[in-house]
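Re: the multi-chain job from yesterday

Posting the exact lines I submitted so nobody has to dig through the queue logs.
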Amino acid sequence: MTREATPQADFDAIIIGSGITGGWAAKELTGRGLKVAMIERGRPVIHGEDYGAETLAPWDYEWRGLGDPGIDPAGMSRIPLGIAGLTGVSERVQTPGVAPFLVDPRDFPYQTEGDQPFHWTRGYQLGGKSLAWGRKSFRWSDLDFGANARDGHGVDWPIRYADVAPWYDMVERFIGVAGSSEGLPQLPDGEFLPAIPLNAVEQAFKEKIEEQFPGRKLIPSRVANLTQDRPEQGRTRCQSRNICARGCSFGAYFSSLSGTLPVAEATGRLTTLTNSRAVRIDHDPATGRATGVRVLDTLTRATRTLTARTIFVCAGSFNSVGLLMNSTSEAHPRGIGNGHDMLGRYLMDHAGGVQVQAMVPGYLDRNYEGFRPTNNIIPRFKNLDGADRELLRGYCIAFDAARLGWEAAAFGPGVGAAYKRRARERGPWRLRFNVFAEVLPDAQNRLTLDPVLRDEDGQPQFRIKLDFGANERALVADAIEESVRMAEAFGAIVTQRPGLNPRLSGTIHEMGGARMGHDPRTSVLNGFNQVHDMLNVFVTDGACMASSAWQNPSLTYMALTARATAHAVDRLQSGTL
Amino acid sequence: MNPVPAALSPNRRKMLATMVAAITTAALPPIALAQSVEPVFAPGLRRFLDAFTDTIIPPTETPGAVSAGVPAYLLKLVGRTGALDTFVAACAAISTYLDNAGGGDFTRSSAAIREDLLARLDAQAMTGRHDSRPGNGAASDPDHETYLLLKSLVAWTYFTSQAGGSEHLRFEQVFGPYVPDVPLAADWVNYTNETILGQ
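And the result, structure tokens for all chains:
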């Protein structure tokens, strides 16, 4: 292992960021023989050893995990909105350590614009946000890759499913995805480990809605939690704790630290620099090629330049865009890949934050054991032919049924011994439908650099504008209506139904800003994630996305990264990069 | 029960409600610990707090609220949040309410009478709602609202204490593979660490 070794002046490749795509770039590039430097702005984290909050209980903390109320007088969350999407469905009482791998936004300031202030969730440490991701791993289909061309929103993707399918295979085989094969054209099957099964009420609900609503399916989420041991990777199957975001010393969920980085390090060709922030990409005006990366040591404040033949930008969507934007020069006065002012535009997320709840009569003799680290989904069922011009694209509904726990009784009616005893007893079953809608590409949703304000490292702060539009609101409204219909068809009693125009929130799936496309005049990246006008710079994280689809995106990011690394190595070996 | 004027102003109720909502519904991470000092509390009000919390959660085969340290923790918490005055006023309001309702000193009443008084207040305050926390419906009476805020704090503090969370409830972390469908065991006890967002 060469972690923290002094880097040599010349690498075959520099990877900026060690998160879910940086880890894949490191594994693939070193595996193909390249000498690689990986730059991570955050602190080092050792898999297992640094998961100190993993087993703590609320009472292990002076403030029960709420944070010091003397510092947060109003007790308001230090976690950006959307944390539930990161941590699964059930970690409220496990708040101690719920977010040891997410930054406090007050330490890393940014500005927002628009009607819906964007809450930016980040993970600055070795492994990045892969330590705290939601782990849902869904393939896209040609319904998604062809959507922009079909309805004219955004630019056409330069790739289709067939281009990515073998890379999906490869990624799924390595990370381990629990899931079920369903034969759905809108959600291609993959190479799955046994699925995390439905409980009794979920199974009954599945049978009911699939009978009563032809074309709809309820399936277990496809999730990167092992349901079989992986001794060759030192990983053990999921222990049903549902505290993944604290780090898992079993290695049961995939992260850069549990999966890709150990393989890259084993090659002896990886140099990892933590507390090192890439502040600009340098290039040679004579060749137009990138030559290296200027790196700020965030501890000593010293700056140095690392050189390489190719650069993989995997800093996380917005940070990758900002880095390109900040890499100005005479030849690129608005930043690399930004001659047309497309860089930073067409930011996307998924529209969510809306939940329908319903109580289920009966099934009181049925139970389950363990805390499942995910839920289930009702995959997109609307507009599957893409022909609907009133309601573009689609949505999925994350769904679960669970028995209420102690909180229902503790905050319910009563006092005394009977009230206290009820907190020990299983409550009734409740259904939850979480809406998750595609966001159309919109040029007005954009990231820019603030001309005045600086961040913690003296770099320009980001200004982020990411609003949801009429189509997203229509999709969410439709999803609410359909959720209510399905709940009532099952005989459940709806107890929470959002209003006609609910407040939406993002789902920590920020993407876009450096979209792929055929045409260098309207896109930043080509079909292999190369910057059109600087081909030895690859951007393979979510910044590359030309549309958002309705699926969780990380699996696609990983597949695109693996695909781009193969292309880069081929071109390097042939001398054409 | 004779209604009495609310001793807690609307602004103070709002402040307390904000704190209770944040504590009992938010998911917050740990941050650096700081020194805290239990504030001075008038003996009479401390006696009320002991009686109030132990009536809501009495000792049974598992510790009650006082044994679990609920009153002391609440004082420490509100001392740190800067809401001590508001909390004291809230306790005073409910103490007065219960004294009037029972025709005497609530804290010196028998356990059975205290439970009866609180049960009646609780039933009135919970009318039309299923959750005591802020944001789950408006109480029709200011004292009812104050009571629900205090009860929410007591409940949260007890069930996240070691006694409440690991003796009255269970706290376990490693289960092995998820088992999706089993009969509900007759001796089932809820887990502290199985929580459900949005409840």
